[in-house]
MerR family transcriptional regulator
Amino acid sequence: MGYPAQNGTAARAPQRPTPVPDSGGAASMASEQIGYRGPTACAAAGITYRQLDYWARTGLVEPSVRPAYGSGTQRLYSFRDVVVLKIVKRFLDTGVSLQNIRTAVQHLRERGFRDLERMTLMSDGATVYECTSPDEVHALLQGGQGIFGIAVGVVWRDVENALSQLHGERIDTGETLIGHNPADELARRRNRAV
């Protein structure tokens, strides 16, 4: 999704961001080396397991590493999936409609992995906008109505910090990776014994 190029002249009014398009294109997600089971994804995103399960079953946020195949199998979420889960939670907490959240999630799926870190998502409750520059944020605020914004880079760092203290799983070998939580000495000892 592109924006009109700005040439930096002071005489030009800031460009208003364009709404996140409602598109059904296929997502192309970056391959990652670590996956996170449901309880870990919940802890990092600040959601309940019930929410996670519902969102996966309804297709709002499905695990990109490994879906559940019947009872007894474990879903495995990528880092990017966990960032999206936390964004969905924040939008829901502010009253953004589920339809608009679905549109925003589809847009996030289509973005490059690195692009997410520099993005700000804004919503006026009716539409979700992607802003990639301070001028776009300013132009949106000039509309005079209430706006809610999520700096995806901040969410990214929050999730990164949370996951560094939790367990992950190597996608290629299934090996459990122990987080940097000093209180989890027993898990570290178990992992060394294997």
Remarks:
- Residues 1-18, 20-31 have pLDDT under 50 and may be disordered.
- The longest helix spans residues 79-93.
